[in-house]
């Protein structure tokens, strides 16, 4: 079938930005035999360098159409209006060159709202996937304006996909819409290697932005409390962000510089190398819509320490890790100590194999194909 994928940012190495997971999914659908056209509607600020206006190129066998209007922080009504104008402009060109799609699949709330502008122009069915952190919070904490927009958008789609059960509940609370849960595809090309190299130290690894949402300072503090008298244990933190310098100072203040290393931002292939030589992955996030980095670590055979923060609960269990409450320092201390003593009891090969099978491109493409077929049959059943 013909599928039009609508996303934000660029799905290629040509430009920095978003669109990576969406493009991985689109690539999987292409490999599964569908005709996929990828549409990028980029309304980010002028600071994001890219060619303005429209462009068209082919990537991994897919036609990619983009429109770039550098708006940045402007009123929502202006942002949405410009996006709707842009996507209609691209859509007319796409239909002329490729024909009308069977499915229009939008990612994230903002792009899904923009894609609805195509409804008067097409007979295609509309599907969206919600990963947006802007709605991954208590409903009482979401602004009334955003709640109204979200409810309108979710109710306007033929089917809505979420990436976790927690997000399913959130969308039902917002719009009384029942959704399907299909996890993100995770590109594990650089991952999936289990190290057989023996090392003297037990190595914990943290990968994530150094921001309060990811709790790097809590991670360092709990680690220091867990292993005050242990020498053969280390914690490596990979990532950059607003709390980077605070974390470096904390390491110094706690006198754990001999055990805790902060490496900053690193390319994915190097991160994969660190994970492969680690014993346990830890990320005590306050909130995750999904949690790709946990999947990357598990594909390397690592047991993980995760929080019940929305995403990890759907794939972390007693066979591959430990789930603890959010912002619970003592629980994290206990988890550190537990993993130090028990990590070798986990079956690394099984963790890796099950993770790769569950989140592989083929597995996700099969689930999407089934959902698309069901959506297309809806009119026949009426």
Describe the structure.
This protein has 13 helices and 14 strands. 39% of the residues lie in helices and 19% in strands. Helix 4 links the parallel strand 6 (125-130) and strand 7. The protein has 382 residues and is of the alpha/beta class. The strands form 2 sheets. It has an 8-stranded mixed sheet with strand order 3-4-2-1-5-6-7-8. Strands 11-10-9-12-13-14 form a 6-stranded parallel sheet, sandwiched between helices. Residues 12-18 have low confidence and may be disordered. The protein is elongated, with a radius of gyration of 22 Å. The protein has helices spanning 20-31, 76-98, 109-115, 144-156, 165-175, 216-226, 244-253, 268-276, 292-299, 329-342, 348-359, 361-376, 378-381, and strands spanning 2-7, 35-42, 53-59, 62-68, 103-107, 125-130, 159-162, 180-181, 202-207, 233-238, 260-264, 280-283, 304-307, 321-324. Helix 1 crosses helix 12.
Keywords:
382 residues; eight-stranded mixed sheet; six-stranded parallel sheet; 13 helices; 14 strands; 19% strand
Say what oligomer this is: single chain
Whole-number mean pLDDT: 90
Residue runs with pLDDT of under 50 for 5 or more positions = 12-18
H/E topology pattern: EHEEEHEHEHEHEEHEHEHEHEEHHHH
* Strand neighbour order, sheet with most strands: 3-4-2-1-5-6-7-8
**Number of continuous helical runs:** 13
The percentage helix is 25-40%
Can you tell me the overall shape?
elongated
Radius of gyration: 22 Å
């Amino acid at each position: 079938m013909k599928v039009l994928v609508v996303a934000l940012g660029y799905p290629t190495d040509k430009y920095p930005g978003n669109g990576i997971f969406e493009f991985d999914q689109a690539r999987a659908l292409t490999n599964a035999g569908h005709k996929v056209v990828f549409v990028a509607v980029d309304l980010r600020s002028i600071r994001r360098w890219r060619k303005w206006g429209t462009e068209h190129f082919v990537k991994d066998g897919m036609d990619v159409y983009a429109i770039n209007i550098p708006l940045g922080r402007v009123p929502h009504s202006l942002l949405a209006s410009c996006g709707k104008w842009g996507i209609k402009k691209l859509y007319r060109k796409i239909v002329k060159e490729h024909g009308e799609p069977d499915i229009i699949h939008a990612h994230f709330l903002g792009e899904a709202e923009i894609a609805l502008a195509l409804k008067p122009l097409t007979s295609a069915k509309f599907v969206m996937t919600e990963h947006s952190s802007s709605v991954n919070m208590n409903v009482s904490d979401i602004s009334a304006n955003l709640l109204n927009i979200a409810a309108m958008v979710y109710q306007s789609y033929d089917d809505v996909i979420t990436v976790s059960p927690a997000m399913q509940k959130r969308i039902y609370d917002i719009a009384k819409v029942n959704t399907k849960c299909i996890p993100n595809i995770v590109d594990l090309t650089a991952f999936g290697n289990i190290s057989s190299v023996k090392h003297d130290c037990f190595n914990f690894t943290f990968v994530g932005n150094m921001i309060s949402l990811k709790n790097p300072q809590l991670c360092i503090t709990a680690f220091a409390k867990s292993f005050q008298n242990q020498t053969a244990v280390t914690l490596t933190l990979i990532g950059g962000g607003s709390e980077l310098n605070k974390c470096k100072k904390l390491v110094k203040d706690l006198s754990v510089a001999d055990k805790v290393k902060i490496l900053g931002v690193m390319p994915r292939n190097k991160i994969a190398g660190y994970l492969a030589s680690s014993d346990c992955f830890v990320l005590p996030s306050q909130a995750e819509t999904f949690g790709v980095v946990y999947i990357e670590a598990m594909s390397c055979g690592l047991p993980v320490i995760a929080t019940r923060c929305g995403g990890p609960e759907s794939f972390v269990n007693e066979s591959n890790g430990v789930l603890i409450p959010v912002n619970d320092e003592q629980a994290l201390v206990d988890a550190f100590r537990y993993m130090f003593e028990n990590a070798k009891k986990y079956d690394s090969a099984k963790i890796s194999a099950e993770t790769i099978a569950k989140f592989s491109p083929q597995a996700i493409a099969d689930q999407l194909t089934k959902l698309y077929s069901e959506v297309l049959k809806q009119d026949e059943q009426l």
